[in-house]
Amino acid sequence: MFIHDTAVLRRRWFALVSFAALACGGGSSSGPGPAPAVAAAPVVNAAAAPTAGSADVAGLTSVFDFEANRVHAFIHDAGRLSVKAGAPEFLKVVEGGWKTSWALAQKDSDRPVAFISGLSSVLFVPIDSDGDGIGGEHLGDLVLSIEARALTPGQKVSVFFNEKAVATLDVPAQWSTLVATVPAALAKTGENRVRLTFKSAANLPGGRRSAAAVAAVALGPAAAGPGSAPRSEFACDVGVAAGAGAAKSAGCAFTSAGPSRLSYYLPLPKDARLAVTYAGRLAGANVLVRVARDGAPARTLFAGPASATPTSAAWDLAAFGGQTVRIDFVSRGGGVVWSGARLLVKPAPGPVPPPAKKFDRIYIWMVDTLRADKVRVYNPKSIVETPNYDAFAADSTRFAWAQVPGTWSLPSHASILTGVYPSVHKAIAHEARLSKTVPFVAETLKKAGWRTGIFSSNGYVSSKWGFDRGWDINRNFIRESLPNGADYLWKTTKEWINANPLKGKPLFLYLATVEPHVIYNPKKQFFVKYWDKPYTGPIKPAMTGIQLGLIKSGKLKVNDTDKAYLEALHNAEITQSDHEFGVFVADLKKQGVYDNSAIIVVSDHGDEFWDHGDVGHAQSVHQELVHVPLLIRAPGAFPQGKVVDADVEAMDLYPTVLELAGLEAGADVQGAALLPLALDPAPGPRTAMSQNVGQTRGVKVARYRLINAGLGRLELYDEIADPREQKNLADTHALALRQMRNVLGLLVGFENRWKKPTWGTSANVSEGFAAAAAAVAPAAAP
Q: What is the pTM of this model?
């Protein structure tokens, strides 16, 4: 996708700037006349004095469309940040409504609102002192404005800023703007917590209770005064040509009525360029483009006048590559129209996309409880021997950052086989069955004429939990009280294949092996690789399934030697799994089907060994539990030897299997097929979510992982500098924290209906998201 050419920009800008003048209250005399062709900006070094950068972006590909991602924008008018509570943008400041006590996407008469859930709600607002925002260049007293109305008579609200009381206000039953002054001493750069606690609540339909409806919240410097409605906004669908490669931007532009700042928090790829087009609406307009990163002063890329003639410019951001930044588009003096903002990169050389190829044998080799950093191709420092997985990885497409949605078997297996998040498939508790309304890969393939089989050594992946849909053979060795090692599983599978000739039918097999899940009881030939001395402690290999529970509950005390012995058992189980996978591959080669088969290797979760004070799994969303290996070998389709660094999710495997089978995933699938990503020479930022239901949620985007355990309990980790997640950066990396909060909030808010194929991911949405979000009907008013 390339930035618009000059001729298209000329036509587009005449329409956009004229529309902006009318939409923002400008008279006909203030709009520009017909725009001349855009003049080429001088070529400069971005590290030199701030100036207009070269507009030449030939050969570059867009990886982030600022207009399509307008839901992620923070809009400041004269320093005042305004957020509409009834719009998707509100999700960024309320953690998606999770544990912040908001009822979102509601409607009060005809007004989009959010309801206070119960008596008290919380939101979080970013403040910086880089200029043109809430804090200006010197943080002073602030004014908090809340557009709200009470749902009960005699209502009052106490306002707390960073848990310090700042005001108690009367709340009328009619829509009003409530105003509270926040002393400078209570505000801080970085994240600020606003709590609204009301006197009483009313009953709402559906058994809910709420104290008030809120339409907008604003925070700004005292000099800006009160006010909640933004004067600057995105104007879209104005009937102009989108231009070549415009990513269906629908003619959107950001129009400012006066001094304003448009800010985005986002991760930058290496060697990116920032491209944008701007034009002044009135004489005297000036623009500034700035980049801020954690731990360094903000850097101005350009500051200068904005004439009525549209100007296109681009700046080199290589100095910020691989970092999370805040990019500011600042308007000073008269209003300015911004459009065409993109992040652009030079696409990496890659294979020519092959023609569509259909496979008639697809295998998923599921390795239970294998964390990625135990496998040497993921972690060269690992002491665990995995020669067969490593060799297979070298001959496959390896996904470096695959994440699972759950930290135990049931939710992760369910997402793999259904293509949806756990909140949709409902298999999220020990007695919860898989929803019958979600798609299921075996059913889909069987209807298309495939032979399907599941051979499982996982007790959850069985009929009891709803996994008995669409299989020609459904075996669970745990439930059948049979041997359950990978050797027995594959031996039984081969016997079934040999006894049931396919007769031209394609074959799909789901092989849910159990090693290295407890019990940790490896064969001696593998264990001696990791333990070669006597052990007299309490750990008994055949009892480790019970003993892990005792250790977690504190009923079994272990010392460092016991811990090392336990992990040695686990490591040996991994090497045993690797050996059995080697047998599986060798058998396929002997059968002459290996090179004509699609084979997927994946795990459902990992195990912790006191990385964060615990052992086993199902207790957190740290990397040791949710970052898993994912390898796909499909010759002629997935590139062999390719490493994909983008974040992907387990639910992406459902549509991937269907694509390998020559079938299309239905509209109900939330995951996105991985083949296009494997062939993409320049993927943009992506999101992967994990959760311990009701306890913690986590997202990974690029180099950071955010873990949210509830109000004020945030952890931020740098996966590149700190792969074992030992240093929480939440208090020191305000920009990265805010970017991850934005991504998590948006995804949580739309989790049950997110569609990656048409919406993108919550770190990089498409115009499809904006159209779908606008079509979502608010809930009924009280």
A: 0.92
